[in-house]
Write a structure and sequence with these properties.
237 residues; 8 helices
């Protein structure tokens, strides 16, 4: 019974991710607003979801250690991004988008894994976590398309990465049924991804959205993205 529930919820997250990505594709003429919202949502995921969860499950590791791991994730992603950027003159700008999309897809895989772990802890917790994942996986799909499109890739490439991101939570949920990680290991992964997302949002999506359309509505869109993730995580408890 439990595996069926976990996989059913994970399948629903696939639909939420696809819906978010298709929304981003259709709103391409308003990309500055979508990018602004995405920037706020990505940074919001790091601050309001990943970092608190990492601290809550860190076990014997203190908060200074966990925040250092967040910083490690941030600078590691920055170095990868800069290394890829060195090849821009050779026509490989798309790799930067692929790097961001891959990171978001791995996060989606962790979402699916988190659903399975939560249901193992109790059905009530499982449904609460599932509700939060369903809502912010819409943002994940939107963000995945945006980081790829922003790098200059075609819509076909963006849609391909969207499919990868949509399938990822289903794989993560299946993995949770056969694999057990310690709380400390999960906390380290969450902290690393928090650093990744802070770098993606603050150094990539946020400047790009403002550069394309430096208007008040772009800033409002960014705040709305962060606020939506804050509300979701607070409601989820």
């Amino acid at each position: 019974m439990l595996p069926a529930i976990v996989l059913a919820v994970a399948l629903a997250t696939c639909g939420a991710t696809l819906a978010g990505g298709l929304f981003a594709i259709r709103m391409r003429d308003r990309l500055h607003l979508v990018l602004g919202f995405s920037a706020g949502a990505v940074i919001g995921v790091a601050f309001f979801d990943l970092m608190p969860e990492a601290l809550a499950t860190s076990g014997a590791m203190d908060s200074r250690t966990m925040l250092s791991i967040v910083a490690l994730g941030f600078f590691f992603y920055m170095l990868l991004d800069r290394l890829v950027a060195l090849h821009n003159h050779d026509g490989h700008m798309e790799r930067r988008g692929w790097l961001g999309a891959a990171s978001l897809s791995i996060h989606s895989l962790m979402d699916g894994f988190a659903i399975g772990v939560a249901f193992h802890a109790g059905q009530a917790m499982g449904y609460v976590v599932s509700a939060a994942v369903l809502v912010h996986d819409f943002s994940d799909g939107l963000n995945t398309v945006n980081v790829v499109v922003k790098s200059g890739a075609r819509r076909r490439v963006a849609f391909g990465w969207l499919l990868v991101d949509a399938i990822a939570p289903l794989l993560g949920a299946a993995l949770s049924l056969v694999l057990r990680l310690s709380a400390e290991s999960v906390a380290v992964f969450l902290a690393i991804f928090a650093g990744f997302f802070l770098c993606i949002g603050a150094s990539d999506l946020l400047p790009e959205s403002h550069h394309q359309h430096p208007r008040v509505f772009t800033t409002v869109s960014t705040i709305a993205g962060a606020a939506s993730l804050y509300i979701v995580t607070r409601l989820a408890g």
